Amino acid sequence: MGLLKQKHLIGLKDISKEDIELILKHAFSFREILDRPIKKVPTLNGKTIANLFFENSTRTKISFELAERRLSADTINFAKNTSSINKGESLKDTIKNIETMKIDCIVIRHNASGCCYHIKEYVDCVIINAGDGMFEHPTQALLDIMSIKEKKGSIKNLNIGIVGDIYHSRTARSNIFGLTKLGANVMLCGPANLVPEDMKEFGVKINYNIDEVLEWADVVNVLRIQKERFNSNFLPSSREYRNAFGITKERLKKIKKEIIIMHPGPTNIGVEIDNYVVESDQSIIFDQVLNGVAIRMSVLYLLLSSK
Length: 307
Fold this sequence. Notes:
The chain is α/β, with parallel strands linked by helices. It is built from eleven helices and nine strands. It has helices at about 15-35, 60-70, 90-100, 115-120, 140-150, 170-180, 210-215, 240-245, 250-255, 275-280, 285-305, and strands spanning about 50-55, 75-80, 105-110, 125-130, 160-165, 185-190, 205, 220, 260.
């Protein structure tokens, strides 16, 4: 059994504050390794990890692959387009067949919300959720939290705004669970039909005025509008969205204090965020990408190393 209290990482809703802090602690140690000339350690030598991505991914997929290789694990990458899924094989049978080949861990991204809870019932290996439907994306939230902590030193009592398509965002949900457990004040902002009022049940505030949120916040995490998850009538035009909620050069310059800007990617430049903002000194978007490797190294180590 690994060093965390739980066997799998499916979401941050059920994880303890102590486990989050342990993941962050080890991630900062692994971050130092990534700055060395030789970035590889033998920590997971002999372990085999299967990456099963049923949805498109760039940052998350490459980040997990790098993390696995930096830890000296053997890696298998599943390609949906050339698999027996296309012949009618069920997800359950696919997973069970892969695990039968003596896999120690499955990293999975899937469009079905909550699929990881289902999968863990019929396999013995470790399951890591790399994003499932509109449910959770725990490692993205953990790397976001790490990036904030790296700049601010602590999460407690920070004012953190999450702006954009909250309704469809698994990243938003995981961030909410993780940040509130660590004592942050979280405020959501976006179009009313994309920021449901019932999100307040998670201990967050809602404000539909982006300028007020920017004045309040120490950190703003900007989310992509996920057009692939709803029809074109769900929102007004991209120009109207930008005018109402976009993090623009003009809005950033109006703020009379330092504020950290984040984005999990991919970005819709000129819609939810301007290129000027992405490239500004207040942006830590590229820091997030590197910290993603360190967080995933930490999670893999803590779940696959013996106590």
